[in-house]
Amino acid sequence: xxxxxxxxxxxxxxGEIDNSxxxxxxxxxxxTICNGEDLGPFVRKAFASGKPETLLHNLRHFARSKESExxxxxxxxxxxxxxxxxxxxxxxxxxxxxxxxxxxxNSKLQSVAGPLLTSLDSYLEAQTVSHNVNLALSLIFSCIxxxxxxxxxxxxxxxxxxxxxxxxxxxxxxxxxxxxxxxTLKRMLExxxxxxxxxxxxxxSKEFGDWLVEIRVVSRNLGQLAIGQASAARQxxxxxxxxxxxxxxQSRLSLRDCVYALQEEEEDGLSGVMGDDxxxxxxxxxxxxxxxxxxxxxxxxxxxxxxxxxxxxxxxYYFENRKLQLTSDFQVSSMTPFLESHxxxxxxxxxxxxxxxxxxxxGGDLISRMEVENLWETAVSxxxxxxxxxxxxMQTANxxxxxxxYVSLLGVTLRRYGYPVDALLDVLSKHRDKYHELLLSDCRxxxxxxxxxxxxxxxxxxxxxxxxxNVLSFQLQTSDIVPAFPYVAPFSTTVPDCCRIVRSFxxxxxxxxxxxxxxxxxxxxxxxxxxxxxxxxxxxxxKLINASVHGVSQAMQVAANMAVLERACDFFFRHAAQLxxxxxxxxxxxxxxxxxxxxxxAAEEMLSGLLKQKVDGFMTLIENVNWMADExxxxxxxxxxxxxxxxxxxxxxxxxxxxxxxxxxxxQDVLSHISEMIVGALLGDAVKRFNVNAIMGIDVDIRxxxxxxxxxxxxxxxxxxxxxxxxxxxARQLINLLLSNHPENFLNPVIRERSYNxxxxxxxxxxxxxxxxxxxxxxxxxxxxxxxxxxxxxxxDTLIKRLKDVS
Length: 807
Known about the structure:
Blueprint: H1 20-34, H2 40-49, H3 52-90, H4 92-159, H5 162-176, H6 183-252, H7 296-307, H8 311-329, H9 338-362, H10 369-393, H11 397-415, H12 422-430, H13 432-452, E1 460-461, H14 464-470, E2 487-488, H15 494-513, H16 522-548, H17 552-579, H18 584-589, H19 597-619, H20 638-654, H21 660-683, H22 692-711, H23 718-726, H24 729-739, H25 749-755, H26 761-770, H27 791-806
Antiparallel strand pairs: 1-2
Helix pairs in contact: 1-3, 2-3, 4-5, 5-6, 5-7, 6-7, 6-9, 6-11, 7-8, 9-10, 9-11, 10-12, 11-12, 11-13, 13-15, 13-16, 15-16, 15-17, 16-17, 16-19, 17-19, 19-21, 20-22, 21-23, 21-24, 22-23, 22-24, 26-27
């Protein structure tokens, strides 16, 4: 153990150093190494200065300086180690004895503890087996539950109960997936669970896609059904109004024996469309077996996507698809006339929003009210645009009316679901004037055709239904007593034909104005009715009178027609008021003058003119009057006898068809014309002179005419007969003046106003001068100055002189 060591010579710490700088660097290097710091700066500095040898030299010097310290430390510890080894060698005997003692004790312990260890091993083994069995049982129970859930999920999938299948899958994933003991089973579940969810999503999406296709057809049928029910309800209201008008009319006519009971039918509504909740736990919200209005696929898809956590995506998908469907519904085919396709177009949109309203009310948060309102605003804007475009192209009033009626029914239908329809009604109101202009144009053509077909003959009615259809339906009767048949009416076929045209105009006008958002529209209907009567019918009648009436019988028939049309106009305004829901007393308050005044006046003027022409033919016989007769005639002159025969024949014929007021006006005009003709004969150049006998003969003629007027008292009132006589006033007053004993009384304003108010002084002067003819025995030339003048003659001379002075 003692070995000789070669002692190294340790270099002195203060070796030879060239200069103090190297020594300082050496000290810094030594301190850095002792402190365990990084030598990188020294290395970089050495290489940077190009003197790596100095660094190596310093490192070697540091190593040599540490070798002596290491040797001293080893020497000190070597002595301690020798001493320790000696101490251990002294303990070997004690260790051997301890070892043998421990061996004996171990042998005894092994002999005693052997059976105990065997029992302990058996116990531990049994405990391990028990633990394993319990764990196996729990895992088996878990697997059984997992298998049951898997089986239940498969059952629900096979039955299409996707929600229950998803609940089973969720339970498997949350409760059993992480606890599954079989890695194979776990991998299988991790693979199949997403596949099952994807499968369910695909199937539900397919069902939803099929529903989207089906709901378009269902929406169209649903819209047609809803609008049809609105139409039926409107028809029931119209029927009730008709019954009410009939009751009011019967009450107005005081027919107390007629009793009317107005019974209102219950409104069916859309009870057949809106059904109860559907099966499978989903709210149907609108099931109808006939229409197939079933929301179950939609709600199932929505619920399944909620369960899958895809609610927002499905809501967006649903809204986008419905919006695309609505946009597709807006397409108007250019190949089919809008008149034929408008019902389908509007019914499709109506059904769409009925479905959306049901979904909004029963579908939870599937679609929001704001989204439905946005869709409705888009639909209203598009429908208004389509209506504007189609109305601008239409040139037939009936086409506008058909579309307007359907649009108003659409408005009534959708207003029940809370959709605002004012914009649609505004479009209808905007085209009110165009509709009525087209309607007026159609009526103008129909009236022209009806007037062109008139034969100016009284209408013959053989059956009571003809009387009811042509007279009673327009309240043209003058008596409540039904006449015997066959019945000859005082009017021609033109009257009922024109009445039917005007009544149809009123009904079409009221139909267009009704249900258009304007509650009181009688003034509008009345305005266009006035235009129809005053512009269309009046002008057509004027044209007929001026172009087609050539005889007295034709003129008389037209005048009779005008009198009947005057009664018909009263009916027209009452009918318009009734259809507009206006009380008759209010309608009567706003009545204006007879709108066919021009045609009536023209007809009467035409009749009067033709009668005057006839009378003029007879009045030419006045040329045969002997103006210088020796004796006055007692039976009237020839011309007046012919005129009397004609007038009596005329009155007997005219009173069969002409109303009394018309006959009175016409006859008064004719008699006034006869009076003018008599005065004109006295004033004319053909009569150079006449005597009192001739004037007395004219007086007889006028008396005959006055007697004719008095004879009409049975037909007319006494006052009307007196008015007839006033038509002869000018001739009567002139003859009275000529036969008067004091003609100069004409100059007295009071007497003139009372007895000669129709005479013109110039005419009186002219006629009086003719009576001064020298050959006249009574008013001849004066005799000698000393002869006594006739007082009457003197009075007449004074009159003539004074009249000349005035002129």
